[in-house]
Write a sequence for this structure.
């Protein structure tokens, strides 16, 4: 008796969990009719079929298939597996590679043609639905209604669906922000005043300068929101699923695609206040978006965090001798850090670099990480080479099939209504093999553990980095290796502190590793690919 597994899924929270049970019931009946023994069931509730990410049931199903836990997979319809054509093929290839037959109650057997057609139809259905949703939302905008989302200063009308009304308490805060901005106060100073006054922030616990500034190109942030002068703008951006992570990524739309509607009943500020905010951050100084101000100020810029609150630390002036001070950014922008202490950047360098040299030079973890990466890359190279040979053999077989069918066609053995579809399938198979071979055409590069790069970095650190420029490749490598430096103050002495350093040693072995991005400290501390070591003065 063949062992069968069942997979069920429904898309949104608006659907009932009963949908999963109904799919299980239908698939069990299908299995009983064919004499299969159901040994595994998997489900993903309220998970979109547009991506295979964040679907624990699907991931476990594929993992068990690899372990040989079942012989047949049964689904109600192929779109339960995926509504993306590429993902559908990936799932199907994974299952067939592990000798699992895929059966659908509604769609039949999971052969190549059926899966291809159903995957294409599912993707077209999903894209068509997206177009219809956007069309419907455009109609709402033209009718003066909200298309979703709610800006600070407004609340939903409980009596009229899709209608926003002014929240007078929040509107007063909006006016206060614009008036303070016109008076010459910086966004950071305004955010600090609001935090000190205990004014609740829109989404997070504290007001920040970025809450007020947002992005001029996308018209978000309080100082850029045209709704405050009674103009609603929609379709400023669209969202895509990132193919590598499955996360939604926003992309700005060109201004000519924006949808505009006048809603004078939602005006909160005057045209005068808006005109000033549209052209100045402070009198005589234009807005600058955050992405234009990201050049590192010093070698460890963006990597040092406050141990008291977890916020990034930044330069805060110099003393009389010219030594640069570091201070928690939450003190200035959010008034949220209890620690008011500062310390000198050169003291961090003096404490960090000698110990970092010792760590890199003697780290057993680094050697193990390097060897593990090297072994994996060698295995990948071997797999690529073996696959190239498999494709060459498969191409010879396809060419032979083509010659055989053409010989039979010349003799009139095969009628045209059978011949043409068969030839088309052969050509499609050949094109797919050639496409894969083109991707593998370049000889795989045998990896090299970068001991020379590591040694260069150690020598460089031992000499100090005060004179480094951002173009120095060793500085780039240093910023890849260091995930975070957390400063913990000790006792009541202002200049006594200890450091907690998180290192990503994989960056020393993988030349394609990217530099650490500015992220919340919690993301660094939860990373699985880092090690930590502590020291203090």
């Amino acid at each position: 008796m063949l062992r069968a597994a069942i997979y069920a899924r429904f898309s949104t929270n608006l659907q009932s969990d009963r949908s999963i049970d109904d799919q299980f019931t239908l698939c069990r009946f299908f299995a009983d009719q064919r004499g299969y023994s159901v040994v595994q069931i998997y489900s993903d509730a309220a998970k979109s079929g547009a991506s295979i990410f964040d679907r624990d049931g699907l991931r476990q199903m594929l993992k068990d298939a690899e372990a040989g836990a079942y012989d047949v997979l049964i689904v109600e319809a192929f779109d339960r597996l995926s509504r993306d054509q590429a993902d559908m093929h990936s799932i199907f290839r994974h299952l067939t590679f592990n000798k699992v037959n895929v059966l659908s109650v509604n769609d039949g057997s999971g052969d190549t043609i059926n899966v291809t057609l159903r995957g294409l139809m599912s993707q077209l259905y999903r894209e068509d639905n997206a177009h219809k949703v956007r069309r419907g939302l455009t109609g709402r905008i033209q009718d003066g209604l909200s298309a979703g989302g709610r800006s600070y200063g407004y609340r939903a009308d409980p009596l009229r669906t899709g209608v926003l009304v002014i929240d007078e308490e929040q509107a007063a805060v909006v006016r206060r922000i614009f008036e303070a901005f016109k008076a010459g106060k910086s966004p950071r100073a305004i955010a600090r005043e609001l935090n000190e006054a205990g004014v609740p922030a829109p989404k997070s616990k504290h007001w920040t300068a970025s809450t007020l500034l947002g992005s001029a190109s996308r018209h978000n942030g309080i100082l850029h929101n045209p709704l405050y002068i009674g103009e609603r703008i929609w379709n400023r951006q669209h969202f895509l699923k990132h193919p590598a992570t499955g996360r939604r990524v926003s992309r700005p739309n060109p201004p000519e695609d924006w949808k505009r509607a006048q809603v004078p009943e939602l005006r909160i500020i005057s045209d005068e206040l808006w005109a000033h905010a549209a052209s100045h951050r402070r009198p005589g100084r234009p807005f600058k978006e955050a992405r234009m101000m990201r050049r590192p100020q010093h070698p460890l810029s963006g990597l040092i965090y406050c141990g008291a609150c977890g916020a990034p630390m930044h330069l805060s002036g110099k003393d009389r001798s010219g030594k640069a001070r570091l201070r928690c950014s939450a003190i200035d922008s959010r008034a949220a850090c209890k620690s008011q202490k500062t310390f000198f950047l050169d003291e961090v360098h003096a404490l960090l670099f000698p110990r970092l040299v010792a760590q890199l030079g003697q780290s057993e973890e680094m050697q193990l990480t390097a060897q593990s990466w090297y072994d994996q890359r060698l295995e990948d190279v071997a797999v690529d080479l073996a696959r190239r040979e498999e494709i060459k053999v498969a191409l010879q077989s396809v060419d032979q099939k083509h010659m055989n069918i053409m010989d039979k066609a010349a003799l009139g053995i095969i009628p045209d209504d059978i011949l043409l579809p068969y030839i088309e399938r052969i050509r499609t198979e050949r094109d797919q093999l050639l496409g894969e071979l083109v991707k593998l055409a370049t000889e795989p590069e045998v990896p090299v553990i970068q001991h020379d790069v590591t040694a260069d970095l150690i020598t460089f650190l031992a000499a100090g980095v005060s004179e480094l420029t951002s173009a120095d490749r060793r500085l780039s490598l240093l910023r890849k290796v260091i995930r975070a430096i957390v400063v913990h103050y000790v006792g009541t002495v202002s200049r006594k502190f200890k450091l907690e350093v998180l290192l990503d040693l994989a960056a020393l072995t993988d030349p394609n590793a990217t530099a650490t991005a500015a992220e919340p400290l919690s993301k660094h501390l939860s990373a699985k690919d880092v090690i930590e070591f502590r020291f203090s003065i």
In short: The radius of gyration is 30 Å.
